[in-house]
Amino acid sequence: TTRLVWICNPNNPTGTYETVEDIRNFIAKVPKDTLVIIDEAYIDFVTSVDVPTARALLDEFPNVAIMRTFSKAYGLANYRVGYMMTPLELANYMQTIRLPYNLNTLSQVAAEAAFDDQAFLTRTISQNAEERAKWESLFDELGIHYYKSEANFIFFSVSDAEGLADAWLKEGYQVRRGQREGWLRLTIPMAQDGAVMHGILKQFMN
Ligand SMILES: *Cc1c(COP(=O)(O)O)cnc(C)c1O
User: Which candidate, 8, 10, 46, 137, has a CA 20 to 30 Å from the CA of 53?
Assistant: First the structure.
């Protein structure tokens, strides 16, 4: 029997987003003794709907858990701090298996400071959305196939993916290879780097 279903929303590496309604309809068909984890590592970057999180489902199903991290939009990668939201009964199970002192003091202080700085978060999200839109327009213009992203990266396909990745790397820009043949995952860069990368891409596609 299936014990666990893991839904990553937005998904990695595609960046695609599933609506809460679609997830609700799916979980309604899952047996109540199968745990459904919704991994919301990239949820802050979603701009296509007003309320992206599936948190409401915690009140509707006993077998759902939502996981978040400070590693992405809050900028605390490698601090190893995140949190899980579950119905109370599942939280009690988690309490029995988690390691003692699983969160160190420095990471906790950093996470609290990051959480207090909502202006940074807002700025990060809007800059990301703006730059993401520029990449999509350029991909459209160049006829490059990509998944519509609601995350801080785009997954796209070009015939010579390795060659393109090398061309960017030569100028100091590393993208993720090896997730699917002929596909690359690009983390949305700041505007200035984005412009340089666009130039390299246009030249490469010529
Ligand atoms: C980054 C990431 C996480 C969490 O990362 P941590 O640094 O371990 O908090 C979880 N799921 C996905 C899909 C991620 O990309």
Answer: 137
